[in-house]
Write a structure and sequence with these properties.
globular; three-stranded antiparallel β-sheet; mainly alpha; 14 helices; about 375 residues
């Protein structure tokens, strides 16, 4: 048992961490590991691997991911900022490199092989980008003469250009939505709101005409014509699951769903555990986002406020995109369900996000003492 009287790093961490957040992150990862038993064996067998290949790899990825999350949760806000800057520099450099030597999968260059591992640099860019932009917005709010907003706009332009070049329109939309939300919280002028809206609409229209695969997905979504096998089987799995599911291991449609262990794991969960289970899963993500926004609302420090809000928005919007595709509410887009789907880069990167959230939402004694000093009556001065 860790005592409050102790002053070591572990004791300070234990008594200042948001244990609800920590429990939620680990609980969601546990659900993801459980669902990997349901979703991945059929995928492994289809490509000639032993049935529990992806289950074992999922477990192998979970161990370092949890370690990364816990390690980052010990950081101070200043250390979070410095770590994010380092991660952003490395990930952006790798995103440039991936355009030339990256592994091409389904028409996109998003992965690079390092030491026998396939890494997607854009996944690690996302949390670092949020934290660095939060710092730039906060510096501009603290000292308007510092062009923090301008630097944030330039950084966004660089990141968006690299994502489009891969091309990865889904990550581009996610990054744009989170960045726009943070800019709005930082006091975005109305002219920028209008320009961002026009730019976003123009970007989507351009993507439709420039990228054939984007046009194909949107056309299939709007008309229901063409190759809609993924969406059709996902919908069939959800319908077959009904309210309470077919039971663990009893799913049939899941066996033919492409990418059942990654992009369409929500449909597998619906078939085996039912719509009620999926509603509970949606509720967990909702509570996670609302708690983060509540922390941000109470936070006095601009950097902490913008960073926490941006990080939870990133997790929330990514969840919405994944679930929306599974429910046929959005055009098909390969995007994982945070903390749930299989994927090494995705899982480690989401745990970087979780570690940053835990670090920035800690109840720091020095911060409370500083807040109390604002209302302390100086010696010799009469209290009102």
């Amino acid at each position: 048992m860790v005592s409050r009287a102790e002053r070591g790093p572990l004791a300070d961490w234990f008594w200042t961490i948001d244990r609800f957040f920590l429990a939620m992150f680990i609980f969601l990862m546990g659900i993801g590991f459980m669902l990997s038993f349901a979703a991945s064996p059929a995928v492994a067998e289809r490509i000639g691997l032993e049935p529990f290949h992806f289950v074992k790899r999922h477990a192998a990825f979970m161990i370092p991911s949890i370690g990364v999350m816990l390690g980052l949760s010990f950081l101070t806000p200043r250390q979070v900022r410095r770590t994010a800057i380092l991660i952003l520099i490395i990930s952006v450099a790798m995103m440039v490199l991936v355009l030339f030597v990256g592994q091409e999968v389904k028409g996109g260059r998003r992965w690079i092989w390092i030491a026998g591992l396939s890494i997607q640099p854009s996944e690690f860019m996302k949390p670092a980008f949020v934290v660095v932009c939060a710092w730039l917005f906060a510096e501009h709010a603290r000292q308007p003469e510092i062009p923090g907003n301008l630097f944030a706009i330039i950084l966004f332009g660089i990141v968006a250009a690299l994502l489009v070049a891969q091309p990865d329109l889904g990550q581009t939309i996610l990054t744009t939505a989170v960045w726009g939300g943070m800019f709005f919280m930082a006091g975005m002028p109305w002219i920028w709101i209008m320009l961002l809206g026009i730019g976003g609409a123009g970007g989507l229209l351009s993507a439709y005409y420039v990228f054939p695969h984007v046009a194909g997905r949107i056309d299939k979504f709007m008309t229901g014509e063409g190759d809609t096998f993924q969406i059709d089987t996902a919908r069939e799995a959800i319908i077959r699951g009904s309210w309470f599911g077919q039971g663990p291991g009893e799913g049939i449609v899941k066996r033919i769903i492409p990418d059942a262990h990654t992009d369409f794991i929500f449909s597998v969960a619906a078939e085996e555990f039912g719509i009620v289970f999926c509603m509970a899963l949606v509720a967990l993500f909702t509570v996670l986002v609302l708690r983060g926004l509540s922390h941000a609302y109470r936070e006095r420090n601009d950097f902490n406020r913008f960073a926490v809000a941006g990080l939870v928005l990133q997790m929330g919007i990514q969840s919405i995109i994944n679930i929306g595709v599974n429910l046929e509410l959005l055009p098909a887009k390969g995007m994982t369900l945070p903390l749930i789907s299989y994927g090494g880069s995705s899982m480690v990167a989401v745990c970087v996000t979780a570690g940053f959230i835990l670090a920035l939402t800690r109840h720091r004694p020095e911060k409370r003492a500083q807040d109390r000093s604002l209302f302390r009556v100086p010696h010799g001065m009469p209290a009102e």
